[in-house]
Amino acid sequence: MSIKGGRKGLAMGAVATAAAGAALGAFALSGTASGATETAEAAQAGKHAKPTIVLEHGAFADGSSWNGVISRLKADGYPVVAAANPLRGPASDAAALRSVLDHVKGPKIVVGHSYGGNVISEAATNDPDVKALVYVAAFLPAPGESALELTNKYPGSTLPGTLDPVTYKQTDGSTVTDLYIQQDKFRHQFAADVPPKQAALMAAEQRPIAQSALEEKATTAAWKTIPSWDIITTEDLNIPPAVQRFMAKRAHAHTTEVAASHSVAVSHPRLVADVIERAARATVR
Asked: pLDDT, tens digit, for every residue of 66-75?
């Protein structure tokens, strides 16, 4: 009985040991498979990492003008930064934007609206991480050109008659003239296809641009070496459509025309986001 019992115990122990070994083996295999899957997924995610979209607003606006575009880009998985534009002059504003570009690591798509086009054209020059430029109802100046000069190249801008200048003294005694759009003329001039209540908020929140910024000449043009996309607004009263087409053609930009006001990022955020994503897909592999 004792021998039988012992043999039976040994047999049961062997079975238990085998079962435990099998379980451990299965666990090890499961862990290996899980680790391999995670590694593969991480590699795949890294392979298809999306570039950061850096947005630069223009005059008479602020970062909130990109809200509708940002929500769509983020929903599609893009990291987004809406930089604050000082609106003091292309050279100093480009230096501010360049500090943002240097801080954001990896590939970037840089987007500029209106006067923001002057800024991105300078800030992105010689930056290998900037894979594409997207101009949204924007200036694409060549070296030696100013925003004011380009605006007047063809007729159609009614901006001068809507401006509200404010002059003040700086601590060094020099004077600066800031330009606003008169609030009662803002919607017609800047955002005719934006709902009235929203346009009224935009008018109240607008940030002024230094008059000298519109007169300052560009020194570089990143669009000469970086692939560019351009959204041309055919109902624009700030930058005439003929001027926008001239600049886009000169830059060999991929163009999209839309019947929209100067505030196309507010009135057509899906279209603007689509063009940005198109630029990203075409240039970042």
From this structure: 999 999 999 9
| Whole-angstrom distance, CA of residue 116 vs CA of residue 252 | 19
For residues 43 and 28, give the distance between their C-alpha atoms in angstroms, rounded to a whole number: 22
pLDDT digits (tens, 9 = 90+) for 86-99: 999 999 999 999 99
Domain boundaries defined on the chain = 48-283
Predicted TM-score of the model (pTM): 0.84
Question: Residue 116 and residue 56: Cα distance in Å, rounded?
Answer: 5
Per-residue confidence (pLDDT) for residue 48, from 0 to 100 = 56
Alpha-carbon span 111 to 65, nearest angstrom: 13
Alpha-carbon torsion angle 186, 189, 195, 197, nearest 10: 10
How big is the CA angle at 141 (ends 97 and 193), to the nearest 5 degrees? 80
| CATH architecture for residues 48-283 | 3-Layer(aba) Sandwich (3.40)
Per-residue DSSP letter, 106:
S
